[in-house]
Design goal:
By secondary structure, the chain is mainly alpha-helical. It is 59% helix and 6% strand. A hairpin with a 2-residue loop joins strand 4 (256-257) and strand 5 (260-261). Helix 2 crosses helix 4 (107-121) and helix 2 (37-55) packs across helix 5. The chain is globular and about 80 Å long. Mean pLDDT is 83; it is low at 2-11, 16-29, 150-157 and 417-424.
Amino acid sequence: MKLKLTVLFLFSAFAAAWTQESYEFKFLDENAAVPGDSYYSQTLAFRFRNIARLFLPRVTKGLPHEILCAFNVPPPDGKGSFKVEKDRGNKIQIFLPERFSAWSEDPRKLEQMARWTLLSRLGLSLEQQERVPHSWVFAGIARRTASASWTLRNLRFGRFPAAYALASHGVFPELKDIIETAPDAADGFSRTMYEEWAQIVLEQCVHSGAMRKGLLERYLAGIYANPEISQYALFRELFLPHLAEYGKRKFGRFVLTDGAFDLDKWFRREAERMLLSRFLPISVSYLETSYRQAVGISVRDAKGNTRTVSVTELAKSLRGKPEIDLQLQLSETLVRLTELLYTSPPQVTEAFSGLINEITLLRNAGGGPQTAERIASAEKRFLQALEIQSLTENILKDAERRLIPVGKRYSLSFSEKTCSEAVSDRALEVLDNYAKRTGMK
């Protein structure tokens, strides 16, 4: 009885406390400061410096001492500027504007910050920086650094929206054009597209391990020493041996042309891996084209002549387990088809997976009349799935044109603010709404 009275008393006290209007629950102290422009400017500036250290590990012999950067943001009542000045000793001061948006959304200033931090990391004097031409390196670093922050735009389209739109249909620029032709930082949409491809090349070099070997620092030092040099020729001289070894090991015959490593084929394959996925799928037309290229197998006839046949034709003529050379080619084909499987539309994957399984059995167990029939049937189901997917997409496109107003379909183009809100602003809005609902305001 005594225990029941005690529990009842505690429950009554808790209920009374819960109903008191003076009860408050706060996430932050009311005197807590909200980060301002100075904080955001310093954060982005330090990110530039950190990425310069990541990409330029200074493993190349003979480099001058690193020039240390100090970032100076004026107080709120200051005029602000964007400039660099030499400081005492082996140091420089980079002055940032009072308003964060005055430089964080200016493509020319972002590229200039990339130039300052990269050249300083290599110990190269900024007094002659203007002689260094525009480069894909500065454009790619600027985009990578700024887009990695809270101001990343168009998240719904992935990190590279324009590049994805082209790559999903099999359209890729030449690597030479990216490296040798750099639009001005204020050239609008062409510059926006260029920055995406420049960052993609940078990311590919990082994944290959080229940065750890100091290839990028040797590349920038070479341009600084001779601004008239062909950037593409210098890129091939420094990067080609490393990328050839890496690319052939990773992609096999699919990055070769006449038995030699093809830099553009490697670039396209790496770009596909970066841009395409289950959530950003490949187009039906490019999927079929890539499939037919992947299933081509080189065989020799009785006279020693080489010709290319499809996997279906190979299965019809093959009896027993394939030779080592054919097994290797089939293995490379299966790797490529698996990549395509993971970037194909969901409605196609079941039939495509069944076809890949049949080709795997051909590689492991060999061919025969029944094997050829199974592969032919699986390929027919896969091509029918592609046809259904294509018809479905055409029906949906036609319905969208007929039933959805132009303003709805192109809402981003017609709206005053075409980009997403900054994450920090949305967070404050959510906290304000919570405070209003809970009576904290």
